[in-house]
Structure formats: structure tokens, C-alpha cells
Amino acid sequence: MNIDGTAWRTIWLEKDGHSVGVIDQTQLPHKFSTLKLSNCQEAATAISTMIVRGAPLIGVTGAYGLMLALQEDPSDNALEAAFKQLNATRPTAVNLRWALKRIRDKVKPLQPAKRAEAARAESALIAEEDVAMCEAIGNHGLAIIQKLAAGRPSVRQKEPIQVLTHCNAGWLATVDWGTALAPIYKAHRAGLNIHVWVDETRPRNQGASLTAYELGREGVPHTVIVDNAGGHLMQQGYVDAVVVGSDRTTRSGDVCNKIGTYLKALAALDNGVPFYVALPASTIDWSISDGVAEIPIETRSAMEVTHIQGRNNNASSNNQLTTVQLTPNQSEGFNPAFDVTPARLVTALITERGVAAASETGLMELYCDD
């Protein structure tokens, strides 16, 4: 995607061929900066501290993390140790384990001297596949948006199509294009009049900081709202569709996404607003069926709830990022990072292979040959 006229991806192999570059998302939207990852530990830290985040991007970063580990020590023991270290960084998104397993399966049969190069090639392939899948998701989602636009009453034809999204499922969450935002980018580039309601997405504010940043750079009209405003907007008829991403989707169509997604789905159902989930195949966990019972929910630091980060606009601060406390000293915080939306609340799943019903039958119709 474009940033100030320059095309960027979220992760890339550096020119030296042995290190990996990433955008430091903890600095956005106030500062655009990049980091170089030179070893497995740095890759693990980038994932756990959310320098990189979003299920697809986490997976690609994990793959490159194994490459970095194998460059230092290609032995079986080092491979397994790096696998465990990287896999433990974020427990909810299934893409991470999927990508790590793919690299491990690729290099394990090889002689140690050939493993790093094989991991490098496979990681690059995973990244390219992610871009292609996300663009395909965008194309399938565009068809849905076009249908929604055409189906509106004639008195609303000149009004923008109103889409609400939660968290960040754009190009910053993937290698490029994104999942939930890919259809929006496609619609905008196709000339459709579209406007996005951007949930702030407490506690880390990925909507306010990252989704708003992306949409602004692309020139997509958008408005940031507090998380609890979505239901009100749906009641008032200001939302034509909700589109979100997924960190893990069960074979039955249950969807695990950023905390607060479940409440948006309930509000959408109550107000007759279609609720779509956009995801690539790597996000589907075919091994589980009951998302509420079986998906591990990451609990992050309570400090993300009790404190908030932003830019200090005081003249003497030089616009530095700062963290401030929101709560009384004695108040504890609890910070589950995700929740599960049952399949019954999902209108459809938008995948790289097409649009599926949120059910095992619906998914199998698209992926029966896998």
C-alpha cells in the first residue's frame, strides 16, 4: 500500500538477504519507523510486543523468525527450540503455528547446511501467498459491497455506503491489502462512494491508530468512533454492513477476533445489519469446532487497560509519545485480547476462494480439495 506516495509492505527481506525489515506499529500513527530483525529473539519480541500484529502478519514474521534461527544454528535442537519460542509469543492467532509448522516441515528433511536457505525461500513464498489471498478477499468482498450499494432505495443511492469495522484488519495486519479492509480499498479504487466507521478498539486502540492511519493514507473517508457507539449507529440506520477480520476461525464457522467483536455481531443481528468476516485459509483451524470452548484467549498486560499511549502535544515535549495512567492506583485491570463470535451471528465468511456460509458445510464447499 502507499504511504506518502511510496509503496510499502509490512515485512520484507532486507538487501543483505539475512535480516528482516518490519514497520514498527507501536509508533503509529504519530511516527512512521522501521526496524531490522536480525535473530530469532528479535522476531519473537516483535510479535509479543506487537511491533508486528495481525494474524497473517504474525504468521509471516514467525516464518522469517525460524529462518533467522536457522542461520545461526541449523541443528534439530535449535529448530525445535526456535519453533517453541516463536509459537509461545501469541497463543490465539492460528496463523502463527500454521506458518511455523510449514517451515519446520519444509526444512526438517534437509541437511542442516541447506535449511536456512530453504526457510528463506519458503517464508518469502508464504508472504507472496498472503498478498495474493488478501487481494482475492478484496475482490470477493467488493462484489458484496457493490450488491449492497445497488440494493439500497433510490433515495439513498447518492449517499455513501456505510461500513463499520473493528480493530485493524488492513494491510498493517497482513503483508499487503488486508482482510476486512481489502474490500473497502477495492471499492474505493473502483470509484464507489464509501465511508468507514472505525471503532477505536480499546485497549490498544488499533482502530483509532492503525485503521484510521491506513484509510487516511489511501484517501478513504472515515470517522473514528468510541467502541460502544456501533450499536447506536446501527439502530439509527447509519451502518449498511459490518466487516471484521479473524485471528482464528473454527471449522464450524465460529470466529475469534479482537475483544468487542462479539458485541458488534449481537448489535448487527438485532438491527438487521449484515455481519461479514474476512479471512484467508491460514486462519481456519480445522482441528476445532467449538470456538468458545476450544480457542485459547490471550490475556495481555493489565497496564494496557489502566494506561494509554499517545503523543504529547505540549510544546516542550517535542511531540514525543508518552504513556499516562487512566485509573486509580488501587484499581486492577483485566485484559482478554479476543472474544468469540458464534457462527450463528455471522452472515458470511469472505475468503480468498469466495464467500462461504459460516458453517462446516460452507467452508468445506470451498476447501474440500485441501
Overview of the structural elements:
- The protein is of the alpha/beta class and 370 residues long.
- It has two domains: 2-128, translation initiation factor eif-2b, domain 1 (Four Helix Bundle (Hemerythrin (Met), subunit A)); 138-367, Rossmann fold, CATH 3.40.50.10470.
- The protein has twelve helices and 18 strands.
- The chain has helices spanning 40-48, 55-72, 76-87, 94-107, 112-150, 182-189, 206-218, 230-235, 261-270, 291-294, 303-306, 360-367, and strands at residues 2-3, 6-7, 11-13, 20-23, 34-37, 161-165, 194-199, 222-225, 241-244, 248-250, 255-258, 275-278, 284-285, 307-311, 321-325, 338-341, 348-351, 354-356.
- Strands 8-7-6-9-12-17-18 form a seven-stranded mixed beta sheet. Strands 13-10-11-16 form a four-stranded mixed beta sheet, covered by helices on one side.
- Helix 7 links the parallel strand 7 and strand 8 (222-225).
- Helix 3 (76-87) runs antiparallel to helix 4 (94-107).
- The mean pLDDT is 95.
CATH topology of the largest domain: Rossmann fold
Shape: globular
Query: Whole-number radius of gyration?
Result: 20 Å
Q: Name the helicity range.
A: 25-40%
Q: How many DSSP helices?
A: 12
Name the CATH superfamily classification of the largest domain: Translation initiation factor eif-2b, domain 2
First-last Cα distance: 30 Å
User: How many domains, in number, for the residues?
Assistant: 2
Sheet having the most strands: 7 strands, mixed
Mean of all residue-level pLDDT scores: 95
Structural class: alpha/beta
Active site: 247
InterPro entries: IF-2B-related, IF-M1Pi, IF_2B-like_C, Initiation_fac_2B_a/b/d, M1Pi_N, NagB/RpiA_transferase-like
EC number: 5.3.1.23
Site (Transition state stabilizer): 167
